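Supplementary Note 3. Input sequence used for the single-chain structure prediction.
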Amino acid sequence: MMTDDGLAELFERATADLDPGVPAIVGRAERLGRRMRTRLRMWMAVGSCLALAALGAAGLGAAAMLAHPQGARMAGGVAGDQAGRKPSERGGQASPVASASPTPSASAGSSGMLAPGYQMPIGQMLRVLRKLLPAGSTVSNLNPYSAQDGMLQVDYNDGQGAVDLIVSVDPTAQYAPLNCPTPLWPNEGPRPSGALPISCAMRTLPDGSIERDAVENADAYGFYGYSIYDQRPDGITVFIQVANGTNHFTPQVDRARPPGSMAEWEALAENPAWHLKPGWHLVS
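The predicted structure, written as discrete structure tokens, is reproduced below.
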């Protein structure tokens, strides 16, 4: 006859494997929320009528997955995509302005998903980043929740304090068309005294690359940054976003302007060292 203690032990064994991997769940939700927010901002910039529908769906989805409504704020400012992400945690923080978060293009002819195993590995991305950054600068605090092959979010220190830095390398087919909206993105809060004005410029480079260079709008914390999308003829898009502060539990503004100049970050984004594994392809 089974005793109460025996039943309790049986239930414990039966449920032992049901414990959710909370860090993994939170990290995945944060990443998905960031991509949803970025997608929203991109469509808003494009001015598509789908923006309203996407706004409702993405807003509800992000709210359900993230405890923090703003999810991630800086990545893309990228425009205003500013990925302006506000992280829920260093582990799950978001980037500042939004990156042109991967939004499958209508002409891609597929779901826009990169086949497994062809993304640029995190370790290789870190080695390239350290090699391309100015001498004497340091990189630390890799965000373990947003980090994945093809994307980095780290603290970058130029010797005058750490700021949030995001780098991603993805197929261009995952992005909506780039453009500069009119009017430009509005600030969500006051810009720091001495901050650069909001701006956006589209360029065609000698090699045929299409690039968007933006100084993002500020979020409610005064957090903003540079965001650069370099879409290359080989079908790869490199995104760089560097902020005016760190983005751990919440954005922390440490300076009026992001470190370096737009030209310096453009050169970093355009470097051919950023790539996908040879043979990469999209799957339906």
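The radius of gyration is 20 Å. The helical segments are 4-15, 22-46, 50-65, 122-132, 262-270.
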